[in-house]
Design a protein that fits this description.
This protein is mainly alpha-helical. The chain has helices at 14-23, 29-44, 55-62, 66-73, 86-89, 91-95, and strands spanning 78-79, 82-83. A hairpin with a 2-residue loop joins β1 (78-79) and β2 (82-83). The radius of gyration is 12 Å and the shape is globular.
């Protein structure tokens, strides 16, 4: 079993607030969707690179609403096609496998 650690109060991160506003959802929804994306990436894409993966495809794969995944893709939570905090949150788990 793998445990992902993420910052306390992630739902208050300005990037998360911007995504929630754009997707028109409560900020508490976004961390759950982010963790689903991280879990998928840990299992199937250990670099955190999402280039070549469409928001529609990823949303369908993780069972998340497309508008939320699109808003995440359009935000600073993904930078240069990579999950922005990958090196802090998930990369240590990949190294320990």
């Amino acid at each position: 079993m793998t445990w992902l650690q993420y910052p306390a109060r992630l739902h208050q991160d300005p990037r998360v607030l911007a995504v929630a506003s754009k997707a028109n959802v409560h900020p508490h929804v976004i961390p759950g969707t982010l963790m689903a994306i991280y879990e998928w990436a840990l299992e199937f894409n250990s670099t955190g690179n999402l280039e070549g993966i469409s928001p529609d495809s990823l949303a369908s794969t993780i069972g998340a609403p497309v508008n939320i995944v699109e808003a995440i893709f359009d935000s600073s939570l993904i930078q240069d096609g990579k999950l922005a905090d990958w090196d802090k949150i998930a990369a240590p788990l990949v190294r320990n496998r």
